[in-house]
Amino acid sequence: MAELIRAKEPFRFYTRLHLSELTGLRVSTLSQLVGLIKQVSGSCIYHHTHRFLQQHQYLSPEPPNDFSYWVAEILGEDELGEKLASIDTVQFSTIHDLREAIVTAIDDYLKNNALAKLRFAREGEEFHFVKSVSFVIPTNYVAYDLKEFKDILGSITIDSIYFHIFEARLRLERKTNDFSNWIENSIGNKELAEDISKLDPYSHTLEELRKVIIKIIERRPSV
Predict the structure, then answer these.
(1) What is the largest CA-CA distance in the chain?
(2) What's CA 139's distance to the chain center, in Å?
(3) H helical segments located in the chain
(4) 80, 105 Cβ separation under 8 angstroms
């Protein structure tokens, strides 16, 4: 492990409680869908691109995109569904940029597929917009060096890992995940911070992600 330098600022671990809240907004066509995607809150975009990951942390590491599923399975627009599913969420650091990528994909498709505008979802199969409501709560865990950080990381809940890796970076629009930010700025280990930052968190379950980060920290030799 890297040298046990005492952090300039200790790392306080947080966790989060999550609620899904219906907005009352629903659509039946692609035109209606993209129109509301442009208008709804960022918490709606976050919910529909991260819902599966939040609710099924122990299962498939690939978080389905609610928009792509509805477009393909309900409207039968498989080509657009694939385009939406292929949007690489990890490359976006803000909800705004992720929203724009989704909007652009749908708008471009509608321009080149006039018949797609005429497809309606059957009654009861409309797309319902839901927003994600989170309550961020401080835990009693605080790390003053990398060893303490690694030890705590092995025992905190996956909700805490989710918050610091996913929610803090994308929904709160921070440039990187909380772990990398602290390691670089409070510990001064830029290389280790980059190793963790380069991870594609969407390709792992949260339990796998915990183990991978711990291994990365352990690989750094002691000084």
Answers:
(1) 66
(2) 21
(3) 30-37, 42-55, 66-73, 78-85, 95-112, 146-153, 158-162, 178-182, 190-197, 206-219
(4) yes
Please give the backbone phi and psi of residue 166, each rounded to the nearest 5 degrees, phi first. Answer: -95, -60
Asked if 14 and 139 count as a contact pair (C-beta separation under 8 A), the reply is: yes
pLDDT digits (tens, 9 = 90+) for 167-199: 887 776 777 899 999 999 999 999 999 999 999
DSSP run (H or E) holding 74: none
Contact 54, 203 (CB under 8 A): no
**Residue 207 in contact with residue 53, Cβ under 8 Å?**
no
pTM over cut 0.70: yes
Give the span between the Cα atoms of 141 and 149, in whole angstroms.
9
Whether 1 contacts 35, CB under 8 Å: no
Which positions ≥6 away from 151 have C-beta within 8 Å?
none
Q: How far is CA 215 from CA 62, 101, 171, in A?
A: 22, 34, 27
d(CA 222, CA 2): 5
Tens-place pLDDT, residues 56-73: 554 444 556 899 999 999
Q: How far apart are CA 53 and CA 209, in angstroms?
A: 13
